[in-house]
Amino acid sequence: MKMKLDSGWIAGRWKEVSNSGEELTTTHPPSPSTKPWMEGLVPGTVLGTLLKNKLIPDPFYGLNNESILDIADSGREYYTFWFFTRFQAPMSANAHASLNFRGINYSAEVYLNGHRKVLPKGMFRRHTLDVTDILHNDEDNLLAVLVHPPDHPGHIPIEGGQGGDHDIGQDVATQYVEGWDWMAPIRDRNTGIWDEVSISFTGPVKISDPHLVSSFFDDLKRVYLHATAEFTNASSLAADCTVKVQVSVDLEDGVCLVEHDETQKLAVPAGTSVLYTFQPLFFYKPSLWWPNGLGKQVLYKVDITVDVKGYGESDSWSHLFGFRKIDSHIDPATGGRLFKVNGEPVFIRGGNWILSDGLLRLSEKRYQTDIKFHAEMNFNMIRCWGGGLAERPEFYHYCDLYGLLVWQEFWITGDVDGRGAPVSNPNGPLDHELFLECARDTVKLLRNHASLALWVGGNEQHPPEDINTALKSDLQLHPFFKLPEIGTNLIDSPLWTKAYEDPSRYLDGTRLYIQGSLWDGFADGEGDFTDGPYEIQYPEDFFKDDFYKYGFNPEVGSVGIPVAATIRRTMPPEAWQIPLFQTLSNGYINEVPNPVWDYHKYIPYSKPGKVHDQIEMYGEPKSLDDFCEKAQLVNYIQYRALLEGWTSRMWTKYTGVLIWKTQNPWTGLRGQFYDHFHDQTAGFYGTRSAAEPIHVQLNLATYFVEIVNTTSSTLSDVTVDVSVWELEGSSPYRKHSKSISVPPKKTLPVFEMEYPKTNNAKPVYFLLLKLLDKSNSNILSRNFYWLHLPGGDYKPLEAYRSQKVPIRTSAQVALVGGTYKVEMKVHNLSKNSLSEGQSLNFEDRNNQQEPIRIDNIDTTQEPVPEKMDGLLSRISSLVCTRKKQKQMQVTETKGDHSGVAFFLHFSVFAATKSLKPGEDARILPVHYSDNYFSLVPGEVLPIDITFEVSKNTVPQIVLQGWNTNGHPLAMQVTRLN
């Protein structure tokens, strides 16, 4: 049994606390109402505690971070803090208790009921203390922890830099905390009890660090589950044990199937530990775990228990386990590293990840949103960058559930560990053995997760030679995982396990170790700086032969400014000024951001001398809202083109790409698909489109239409429908392909898109691509482009904003607990210029679209925010109750122009009477099945919207668009009490 200690903590600065640890946990326990004690944040950091108590301004707002004392100036003592809590822990007779810390930065002294224990240093290691004889069974237990910052927190040079002065690299800790080109420094360097604290109770024998491994033979038909665990007998008597392993899987309709239930005998001498390996469990064709986009993420529940004779159940352990085999090798055709899962090549399209929150305010709920967002973008890999965290089990749990392969790096970066400016120390941390202890403990913590695919020594640098050699040895592959082919059958006897040591006895043995992110099939494979670029690009350049030379790019980045509401939420009004556009002598535009944007690492949408300003392509922005709206257009195009360019050369030139980066751990203004509050940029949906498993796209360099099939099945009898649309809604060009078959894992050019070469081609036009199943006309992929003629721009779209295209929205709403599930349909009511019978409805993949039904509903409206008065066209109220679900369809028609409904996007707000400047009424996070979309005349698009709200919040769904003439449609959703 485990009891988390995640509430009731108080904290105080060490220099201001007069009592010793022994006194605090015996005769002089502190009171939260007495200075210097305050409410403590555990798990969390000192800075998080100070922020929680409003003793510092929000470091993520404006320039507030500059007013917070940096540890380099204050000294380490300033951020050395006591954390204290009381807890009750009734313990049964003959039970044993452990006090567990899953992560402390950087070192600590622990006092429990007057007893002291010094914890060793290192941010990434667990600590377990036997407190059986210390706990009070019938009264409060007093726990005090004195936490010391990293030994070498370093200084931040005036000019900033990657990892500050690099001193943090002398410790085994996160390196981003000294600041980077995408992150401001963290003033306390994340000092604190930053991960879970718990008390666990067992009988005389405890289970530690089980290791689960599956091995495959006979083309995945024959599978063995191996398990090894450490059993520790803390009693003074020998223990006769019965150990049991049970494997079960949830089927449909809540049925659980027990696949194995095996028991074995084990004797554990008093006061010793035994590493015990179970007899392998045989499975025939188990359901497999697949990455996102290739299949289901089936997870089996593995339970291990130990019963002690004369005592009963002494301890238990449980984990969700996925049967899958991951291989990778350097592809001779491309030079890139090629990953295979269960024998299927996986074209990697994913992103780089730092961590969820720069102040380590980590939560399971936030992790779930983060990882689900990555899955919704159709990504299949996340790279955990070496300057951030060894991610937590909760992160990996959701990667398991959503099918995201994880590349996990250890705590080495090129800038801090051997490169950078000035050149940093190449010898890594001062204590190499400490690094290895943290690495080995991290492997034990994470190795059972199906999503974990790769261990990497560091980012753009490998660890020092002795550490690198040790990691290669510790993480060597078991012979079973060196097989050239999954189908190789080396065994024909149930006694096959005698041929080799059981793979579960290895530290890992199943995953490859690569010494650094630029070696062995990544970038040029030799460790040189051959990743990137990280700035704005012309969209067509991503498709060109000379854009990137190597087969797998671990980092390529670009822009990513969020929506205007986020700017207002994170900066004072004087920082809402958009960049100045300076025209240079060479005709390029230089963007000059205000100081707050610059501090938040804004990256321009131009690159003078190479790329003309991509926002100005739509006309010079006039306001913050105008700037951010046009930036979203660029975000969408930029990231869609990036991934489509890579996918266009799938297996012929590339094996994968990881975008730098998917999100910011603070309120940054670059390189992100969603902001720190979980509101998505348009780049999120451009990426989502480009990375769908079956996709139709336009090669922007050749203007050939291409079909992408990343699945393992042949696409048979499909057709491509191409239609060009002018701004006012006419369609001068249409082409429909003959029946096509696309082999699995193949990008197939279909035909050239001819419209730009025709007479009277418009300077700006829209292109709609649809991939259809010819047998039933279902749309397998839909892709919408806005394009201009060579040498042109998008400025004709500016005049288009004054029009108002008629839009009908309808919805069905279900309220489940506090979660709203909205099935929305959006219909462009403009007259369809195509001939009768040529439907443009976007049917869902299951062909379940229903015709729009118009209901007349008489309901009472809730007030709309004052700032939206005069702007919102109310549709109706949808009334739901917890006890009885009520579904209604609602519709509204507005508009006096025909044409393409361009760049529509939903938002969800909390309805309120008034908003102060900078106040944010958005409800976040929201999951949309699509957003930032466009509809040609007559087209219908279903959108699913899911979000959670508190009981007293009235949500309002708002639809805005480029040509709604400044009048967003609003749908208010109220709740009956």
TrEMBL record:
GO terms for biological process: carbohydrate metabolic process. Residues 705-788 form the Mannosidase Ig/CBM-like domain. It comes from the Eukaryota. The keyword Hydrolase applies. Residues 338-469 form the Glycoside hydrolase family 2 catalytic domain. Residues 205-324 form the Glycoside hydrolase family 2 immunoglobulin-like beta-sandwich domain. Keywords: Glycosidase, Hydrolase. Residues 34-194 form the Beta-mannosidase-like galactose-binding domain. GO terms for molecular function: hydrolase activity, hydrolyzing O-glycosyl compounds. The keyword Transcription does not apply. Residues 883-964 form the Exo-beta-D-glucosaminidase Ig-fold domain. Belongs to the glycosyl hydrolase 2 family. This is Lysosomal beta A mannosidase. It comes from Taxus chinensis (Chinese yew).
